[in-house]
């Protein structure tokens, strides 16, 4: 049996192959990023072949291609690999050999790999969210420039029909007029693209049972429900709600030693898009009656808005987990959450290999 480590770079690959005893069978310092070159390297090795690589750059494309050729491919979280294996010298050949060795001894912190359909959904939903962010930045910039010249629209929607009429007749300086017209053209172009993506989102399959249940949460529409389903993927890979909140980057760090305990920020989110959509949903829930809004309002004065929002998002994430596991709507979960055993909502750790 052969174990291969691949260190990925933009312009080349570094490969190292080990046998079952750890002896180096072959090494390539710089290999062209092509299937032909990689297939030629692998064909000279005794089978079966197990390949390890880190989740970076073009790993999804490479995983799909190697998997289609019948190889066993294991993908690792790069941050956790660094924690497991630290070396004074760091070079491309050392990194490739490190991955091969971790695969050989079965210590590679592998991640969960979503199927092709889930990845396509993620790309579509991430693309729409990115364009909406860009459009929001354009709107904020227009508002800022108008405020700088003491021009305030008396109504709420500056980009509706009445707002456009007001913008056309507002007494702006020539420089500001040119700048606003330029930004409006970009805004309108982004709106066209977003509307096209909205049509694609509406055509997505909605046969997942959790979509309708997530719809029952105040502030969660079709886009939010699809986003949550695509980001979480298979709920079975999380043994508890604690793991899901850690995966979303909503658990603060804790350092306790020698009788001293300190708490820090939430740190790096395994899925920043999941954290983002949960925080967006909380913006609606925090104004509504219910346990999530109560949590936010209870912590707002003592902890401030950012920490209160994160805590409310963590509570919502736990509720979504148990709704998913128990097959309940939001109202059903709230009605029966006190009937079952107590379920804690705080966990300081995340298991290796949870990123995807």
What structural keywords apply?
single chain; alpha/beta; Nucleotidyltransferase, domain 5; 7 strands
Structural overview:
The chain has three domains: 2-104, YqgF/RNase H-like domain (Nucleotidyltransferase, domain 5), CATH 3.30.420; 116-202, no CATH class; 210-336, no CATH class. The chain is globular and about 75 Å long. It is built from 14 helices and seven strands. α8 (209-215) crosses α9 and α11 packs across α13 (305-326). The model is unreliable at 346-350 (pLDDT under 50). The strands form two sheets. Strands 3-2-1-4-5 form a five-stranded mixed β-sheet. β1 and β2 form a beta hairpin. With 356 residues, it is α/β, with parallel strands linked by helices. The protein has helices at residues 35-43, 59-68, 78-84, 92-104, 116-148, 161-169, 174-202, 209-215, 222-232, 241-247, 272-285, 291-303, 305-326, 330-336; strands at residues 2-8, 12-18, 24-32, 49-54, 72-76, 254-257, 260-263.
Q: Can you give me a brief rundown of this structure?
A:
The protein is built from 14 helices and seven strands. It has 356 residues and is of the alpha/beta class.
Secondary-structure element sequence? EEEHEHEHHHHHHHHEEHHHH
Structural class: alpha/beta
The total number of structural domains is 3
What's the mean pLDDT score?
A: 88
Helix content: 40-55%
Radius of gyration: 25 Å
Tally the helices.
14
Largest sheet composition:
5 strands, mixed
List strands and helices in order, with pairings.
Layout: E1 2-8, E2 12-18, E3 24-32, H1 35-43, E4 49-54, H2 59-68, E5 72-76, H3 78-84, H4 92-104, H5 116-148, H6 161-169, H7 174-202, H8 209-215, H9 222-232, H10 241-247, E6 254-257, E7 260-263, H11 272-285, H12 291-303, H13 305-326, H14 330-336
Parallel strand pairs: 1-4, 4-5
Antiparallel strand pairs: 1-2, 2-3, 6-7
Helix pairs in contact: 5-7, 5-9, 8-9, 9-11, 10-13, 11-13, 12-13
